[in-house]
Amino acid sequence: MAAGELDVENAVFLKAGEQANKDGIAKIILPTPDLLEKNDLMTELGDAYDQKRAREAEPGKKVRAIGKRMIARNVCNLGAQLVESAYAHGVVMGKYHPTRRVIEAAKLCIGEASEQIMSTISLFDLPDGIGLPTFVAYADIAINIDPTAEELAKIISTSISTYQALLGEDPVVCVASHETHTGEGNYMDRAREALEIYSESEDAVKTIDGPCQLDAAFHEKTGNSKGARFYEAGWGAPSLVIFTNLDSGNTNYKTLKLISDSAGLKNNLCTQGSRLPVD
Q1: Which helix (H) or strand (E) holds 271?
Q2: What is the C-alpha R_g of the chain?
Q3: For the whole model, what pTM was predicted?
């Protein structure tokens, strides 16, 4: 499903939908008035949302019926609830809506996947000659302001799962911080603890290092001198960088986006961690 501001004449959505249908990628539906009025769909979706809230509420707590109103006033909630109610396998709505609104709708209507956390990952094609790989992914760059070590471990796991699903291979992962391995401070301690938690999971990838500075991660000579494992272990430069807080993640994301955009290359921001596909 593609959700804009209920503007089904939007050329971007129509063109993308036509191409997806033509290529056999997906059958695209748009939230037209005819669709929503059919069999009083808005009432059905609102009731489903209210029933979900009632199931999750504390025993004996009365839950007000707000679903239909909540869905009617916010197209992101509408898109997420259509997925939750199995009218669509996934929804794309981040083109015209802030990432935070997309995440809020997914949390309200669908919820997080088991052992994952809703967050964001951005994938960049980059030009040659700037001292960085020509492809790299950054996470989390838009949602979790100051995650705990447990939350950061889930961001690591969620981002690796997204990378594997999109690219069909394991990433080389850097958990970034202001020093490499030996420094002190809250973010260094958080990175170490998160890595320890993540490493205990059954499907943990081995090609991961941190806490690590970005120059040590991306430049072989610097990395070897500072004790980073990427080149010494033969992994090469990281293809996925995880940041310990949103200040560093978003700032670095914006910088790379400017570089990628100015070179006319592709970059995509994806939401992740939802129990069902929302983007």
Answers
A1: strand 267-272
A2: 21
A3: 0.87
